[in-house]
Amino acid sequence: MATKKKVITKDDIVSKYMEEVLEKGQKPKSVYHFAKENDFTEAEFYAFFGTLEGLEKEIFRLFFENTVNLLHKNEEYQGYDMKNKMLSFYFTFFEILTANRSYVLQSLKIDKNPIKNLVQLTTLRNSFKEYVAEILTDDYRLEQERFQKFQEKAIQESSWLQLMLTIKFWMEDESPAFEKTDIFIEKSVNASFELMNVAPMNHLIDFGKFLFKEKVYSR
């Protein structure tokens, strides 16, 4: 009786891809070569991913997804303010990156062109920006509604830049248990939330409205 072939899953393909990149120090030449060397068909690959590049992006999105899932399992997390949610995200996310450090370092340095390496993070970027929008609270939101959309985008983009800087710092961190990265996270997140203090901006907008009214209606 013929042995029934194991049904390959999305997680199987992700694991096999990460292993191949680590063992060979380079990306597979094509979906055909990758599938053939790992004993599954191209059709099985395309059931989950359109391209190898899509698979690379999905790996970093999965790091993000696993982070958020772990956070939501913590009952206390729901009661945190925005800053503590962000700190929790950072510490959990970098624990997951550290568990996969060899792959992350290899994949983000594999191409001589750093821009091509960063393309892998585009899906992570979209997911992270959505996360920032979800945890944004009124404490950090401008009172004037017409400025809120612009403010939200600015916070999303600056938060993404901060995450990228932290990844770079972590990649270069040689301290035991990456303790310097932990310090960097705490100090940088605290500093960013100090800069996000909207009270002065609200006062500036109110002052601007006052000057506009005085200028227009005093004529």
Structure description:
The protein is mostly helical and 219 residues long. It has two domains: 50 residues, no CATH class; 167 residues. Helix content is 72%, strand content 0%. It has eleven helices and no strands. The longest helix is centred in the C-terminal third of the chain and has 28 residues. The termini are far apart. About 6% of the residues have low confidence.
Which tags fit this structure?
219 residues; mainly alpha; 2 domains; 72% helix; elongated
Topology (SSEs and partners):
Layout: H1 10-24, H2 31-37, H3 42-46, H4 52-73, H5 82-99, H6 101-107, H7 114-118, H8 122-135, H9 145-172, H10 179-195, H11 199-217
Helix pairs in contact: 1-6, 4-5, 4-8, 5-10, 8-9, 9-10
Mean pLDDT: 85
What count of helical segments does DSSP give? 11
β-strand number: 0
Number of structural units classed as domains: 2
Q: Tell me the series of helices and strands, N- to C-terminal.
A: HHHHHHHHHHH
Q: What percentage of the residues does DSSP assign to strands (E)?
A: under 5%
Termini separation: 96 Å
Major sheet characteristics: none
Extract low-pLDDT stretches: 199-212
- Rg computed from alpha carbons, rounded to a whole number of angstroms: 22 Å
Secondary-structure-derived class: mainly alpha
Assign a percent range to the helix content.
Answer: over 70%
- The shape is elongated
Brief rundown of the structure:
This protein has 219 residues and is an all-alpha fold.
